Amino acid sequence: EAMDRVALMLPNRPETVLAYLACFKAALVVAPIDFRHRAVQTDYSINHSGARALIVHEDRLPELRSEGVLSRVERVIVVAADDGDRGHHRFQDVIQSTPSAPLPRSFEMDDLCMMIYTSGTTARPKGVTYTRFAIEDGIRKYLARVVISSDDVGLIAAPITRPMALRSQLLPLLRAGGCASLIESFHVDNYVDALQRPPAKTFLALLPAALGQVLHHPDVDKCDFSRLRLCLVGGDRTPAGLHEEFE
Fold this sequence. Notes:
With about 250 residues, the protein is an alpha/beta fold. Helix content is about 35%, strand content about 20%. It contains nine helices and eleven strands. The longest helix has 14 residues. About 30% of the residues are buried.
C-alpha cells in the first residue's frame, strides 16, 4: 500500500536502481540501508523505519537470518545470481509479475518518500526523512549548479544507498537522461579498470582518499580521460596537494 516502507540492502547494482524507481512510482517510502552495516545496525534501521518488506542481496542473508533480522519484515525479496533462496521471493520474479493494484496517478509533494539512516558513529542511527518535494527540489537545485546532460556518463563507486552518490550522481544523472555506470563497491583496481572501458566517463565523484588511490595507481595512464569534464571530491578535507596531482 502507498506509504508503506520498503528497506533496501543492496550494493550498487541495476536492481537497486529499479527498486528506487519502483518505490517512487508506487508511492512507497524507500529506506535504503548501507550494505556494509552489520546485523545489529540493520535490525535497528528496519525496526525503526517500520519496513514491511526488505529487498536484500543473497550475500547478506545468512547473517541477517542467524541474527533474527529477517523475521522483522513480512516479505523478503532476494536479489540472487541464480535460483537463490527458495524460502523467499526472488527479485527477478517480482519485477516480471503484474501489479495487483493500480499504481497512483497523482502524488502529494509533502508525502514521505525516503528515510536514510545516518551512520550511527556517535549514537544510534537517525532516520532522516525526505518528502517527494525535498527529493525533487534537491535534484532541481543541484542541476542548476552542476550542469549534467544526456551526453554524460557518470562512474558511481560510492554506495547509492547513501546520500552522496544517490543525490549527487545517480538521481541527477537519471533526471538528465545520462548514463550511470555502477561499480558494486569502491576498490581502486576495479575503478581504474572501469575508467579504461568504454563509454568514456565524463563525471566522477570520490572521497579524497579514494581519488588519491586512483591517481597513484600504476595503470592510471591507461585510463580514458578524453571526455572527463567533472570530478567532485567531498566527504572529507581535500588537501591542496591532491588538487595539484589531479591537474
